[in-house]
Model the fold of this input.
Amino acid sequence: MVVVTPVTRSILAKVVKGAIVRPFSRPLNYHINFNKYMREFEVAKEELLARKADIEAQLQEQLRYVGGRSTSEVEIWLRTVRDVINDAQHVANEAEKGKYLLRSNVGKHFVQITLKMKELCAKGGLFDSLVVASTDIVGHFRVIEEINKYLIEQEVGMVGVWGVGGIGKTTIMNHVYDKLQEETKFSKMIWITVSQSPDIRKLQKDIAHTMSNDLSDDETTIERAAKIREDLRRTGSYLIILDDVWQGFSLEDVGIPVPSADNGCKIVLTTRERKVVQKMGCKEVKVARLSEDEASQLFLSQVGEDVLSADPTMRPIMKDVVERCYGLPLTIVTVAIAMKGVHDPLRWRNALNRLKKRRDVLKISYDHLEKPDKSCFLHSALYPGDYGIPKEEIIEYWIEGLPDEMESREEMNSREETKSKGNACLERILDSSLLQGTNGKNIVMMREIVRGMALSLIPKDRRFFVKAGMKLNELPNELELEEAVDMEKVSLMENFISKIPPKMSPKSKKLTTLLLSECENLEELPSLSKLVDLKKLNLEKTRIKEVPQGMECLVKLWYLNLRFISCLEEIPRGLLPNLQGLQHSNTVETRGDNGIEQVGNF
Done:
């Protein structure tokens, strides 16, 4: 016989009670506290939906202004939220049926889903970033958002984006410009590249050109400013982007009204100098160097992950290379593209050693170009820095250089095929980031920092004479030197010279290129009869009244640009047909009255 003591009886009673009561206690709890759990469920659901709406709104805004794509983490979160909300709706539907016997089961689901919704809501507030940026704007989220914020705020009329050269200011504004083109916020958007020396009359002409208006060279600066002011007033709300401003200047002198809340207009300028932003009275937006992580992300996106996967020992060398790019996107992209597909550690170490000499950063990309591409790239340095260069002209330059690079002309195929190869050459240079695309699809430019490197690389035996964009009032004395007789290419674009005296006229029989375009005061040219090797002559936007003497002697001339010469009085009939080597189309656009010959295609 088993004797049960009082202590044993007490223990057994608790065990039996627990075994009987516990299975029923939780369901009973869900049943009793059903209304409480339902209220907590509704609050959690409302908070999660609000968080989801905020995340989606922020995501759309960032994608709209910054581009790229949503991060995988955000995509997973949104997908999970949608699934949980669907489950919550199903439970809410069950609760609405009001079946008394199901209250405990529904209450249990209320508690479980409420917990999930609270966890998701908390996680939604912890994202570092909602989007993965396009590679060209890595690290510039904040800057783009700040610029867009100021473009919306009525109190801010002028924004100054500043930072060191190569930091990505123009790229950022290109991105902002492209995104705004998809909207209707501004009636008109105008992009003007200013560069080192602000020329009020040129700025006026550029602005008028974007509005399809012409300004007379005979008008004073004040008269031109009045016309521009009236044109802009009629335009309505507008955005003017002044890229690469080196010195402050008066908007009033140009004819640009000061932006205000009343006119709804905005001006954004980019500059290397903070003092320019302050002098122009702009709201400051600083573009900082990329962080180490951002720089590495941008570098890998360009050089390719396969470099590391093929040889993990490359990681330390690559890390040092990225560090030597100093967080500058232009340098990072340029070096990464140059090293793409390179798996030899010795070549990487060599690149690292050269990067330690900072001036060699851009030359690494130049060295990776093919020989004909190098020649084409150096041709582009004949233009002023940050100047819009028509793609077609660069391709023609490339074609001009073909005979020098090839063993014989027989290697040149049909002209269309040759132009196709020239276009491929241009694309390779663009891919190297040594030339940049612009808002105009058929226009490229060479940044001032790249042009400086290019000019230093021109071989001494090539005899280039480049004074483009220097705003000279007189020709430099170098053209009087004996060495001038060996010049191959002369570029005096964008200067204020009014005439070229005979004693300073280029006399080199080796001269193949003479660029005098946009010398808007140039009225007199000496005879060109001695330039028997001349292939390219550009007199666009000068003030010459007649074509230079000796033109009939230029038997090798294949490119002639006489466009937009308002003072040109006469082109001798029969001259152009006699220049049988002319191949460039649409190079002459002159008035058809007063007996002036019109030429469209050669």
